[in-house]
Design goal:
single chain, mainly alpha, MetI-like fold, globular
């Protein structure tokens, strides 16, 4: 039985995706496996109390014992992280677009953005709880604040980095300011923007965790808060593992979308 050309092309395409990914994951997986093995052997030989450092087997048993429990809280954290990332990124991109229009606007508005950055996140957490209560709003706002500054800085740098020769060409064609922005500056800033996203998305996960740790009754942060107070270290380590997997998965998804969208850029040729 012969296979159709379409199925052959599909298999070849899948192979071209899977083989490089497997190659990139093999060495980290081996290193991680070695670390986990050493960790397991050390906790058993040294008879380390479980309330100090649990063995990987105890962490795995706790995580696999109640997968629905961790999945439900992870979904809450994920929704807060994505909501905060989307809000913070949207405001940062708009803010950078305004500042990129003139040096005067940048000098006037940048200190306000810097103020958001230098104020400790715990101060904002307390204020948001006072202003908005203990619902999802303060959590999303905290994640958005952590996301805001790196996206702002990278987007502004990208908008400022337009090729001088292309700028001269647009000006010689009497292009309007809007045409220069949308046809030259905005596309040229996309590599900078995705670089910011690779930084901001894990930060949004951290922001969601911080918000839930101090203000929430749902999410990975609340699990760690309660488990830590009870010295339930297997639960703490299990929740940290879920948080790490979430951050890694979101970062990998961002890198994949970057390669798909910026296939035309020199760095992906």
């Amino acid at each position: 039985m012969t296979r159709s050309p379409r199925s052959t092309r599909t298999e070849a395409r899948l192979g071209s995706i899977i083989r490089p990914a497997a190659g990139r994951l093999l060495l980290p997986a081996l290193v991680l496996g070695l670390i986990v093995t050493i960790w397991e052997v050390w906790t058993r030989l040294a008879d380390v109390p479980v309330y100090i450092v649990p063995a990987p087997s105890a962490v795995g048993s706790r995580l696999l014992g109640e997968p629905a429990f961790f999945a439900g809280h992870a979904a809450s954290t994920l929704s807060v992280a994505i909501g905060g990332w989307a809000l913070g990124s949207a405001v940062a991109i708009l803010y950078a677009a305004i500042m990129s229009q003139s040096q005067l606007l940048e000098r006037a508005l940048y200190p306000l953005a810097l103020l958001v950055k230098v104020v400790p996140v715990l101060v904002w957490a307390v204020l948001f709880v006072v202003w908005f209560g203990f619902g999802p709003t303060p959590k999303v706002l905290i994640a958005a604040l952590i996301t805001f500054f790196p996206v702002l800085v990278n987007t502004l740098a990208g908008l400022r980095a337009a090729n001088a020769e292309y700028l001269d060409l647009f000006r010689s064609l009497n292009a309007s300011r809007a045409q220069v922005f949308w046809k030259l500056r905005a596309p040229g800033s996309l590599p900078y923007l995705f670089a910011a996203f690779r930084i901001a998305i894990p930060l949004a996960v951290i922001g969601a965790f911080v918000a839930e740790y101090f203000t929430g009754d749902r999410g990975i942060g609340s699990i760690i808060s309660v488990a830590h107070s009870n010295l339930d270290m297997p639960t703490v380590f299990s929740a940290v593992l879920v948080l790490a997997i979430m951050g890694i998965a979101l970062t990998a998804l961002t890198s994949y979308l970057e390669r798909r969208i910026l296939f035309w850029h020199d760095s992906f040729r």
